[in-house]
Amino acid sequence: MKLFIDTANVEEIRAAAACGIVSGVTTNPSLIAKEGRKLEDVIHEIVSLVDGPISAEVTEGDAETMIAQGRDLAKIHKNIVIKLPMTWEGIKACKTLVKEGIKTNVTLCFSVDQALLAMEAGATFVSPFMGRLDDAGMETEELIRNIAKVKAIYGYKTEIIAASIRNLKHIESAALAGSDIATIPYKVMMKMIEHPLTDAGLKIFANAAKSK
Ligand code: E4P
User: Which of 83, 149, 169, 203 is catalytic?
Assistant: First the structure.
């Protein structure tokens, strides 16, 4: 499973990318607002840090405006992916942008039916949200597994991005359910390497090395 970083903070992206395991970046309007910067400025900087898909989300409600915004954002760099909402307008915009060779990511996906629409529209990526489903007390691993199953049965090329990841359990569930990608906040990604037995083992080996 590929790992994307889910942030608009360039320092976090730089630090995670330096670890060598980041294949892409996802942003959304909330993450951009948190940085207090313009979407275009942040995106320009991110493309210089990670050579992989970089999702930039449109903010307009109707298909025509989303298409226009998507075309402008896509001009920034070949790696830009236009993130579109799971609405009929978003699906219409997806279909048009895909025909023009622009990569898309249909976001705010919470059901197999919604994922099916994104896949039929030819989306490059679809983003089911694990954390928000979990918050609502709903099953997350099953959703990813079922979307992956539909993808396999019909041979869709759309890649599944497990999003809204809050903890290590979400990452493990996404991987076990067959997600293509998990997009992970920086703090959660850094926790992936932690294990108390690794720390204990490191101490034992360091002591052994000193005792020579
Ligand atoms: C990524 O594509 C999503 O926008 C993001 O993971 C949403 O996460 P949240 O539910 O924590 O806002």
Answer: 83
CA 160–ligand 1 middle distance (angstroms)? 14
- Summarised one tens digit per residue, pLDDT across range 102-135 is 999 999 999 999 999 999 999 999 999 999 999 9
Predicted TM-score (pTM) of this structure: 0.96
Chain centroid to CA 99: how far?
A: 22
CB 85 within 8 A of CB 30: no
Q: Output the CA 209–ligand 1 centroid distance in Å.
A: 44
Whether ligand 1 lies within 6 angstroms of the CB of 125 is answered as: no
- Of 80, 78, 147, 137, residue with least CA distance to 111: 147
Q: Give the amino acid at 116.
A: L
C-beta 110 within 6 A of ligand 1: no
Burial of 61 (0-12, 13-18, 19+ CB in 10 A): exposed
Token duo for residue 17: 């990318």
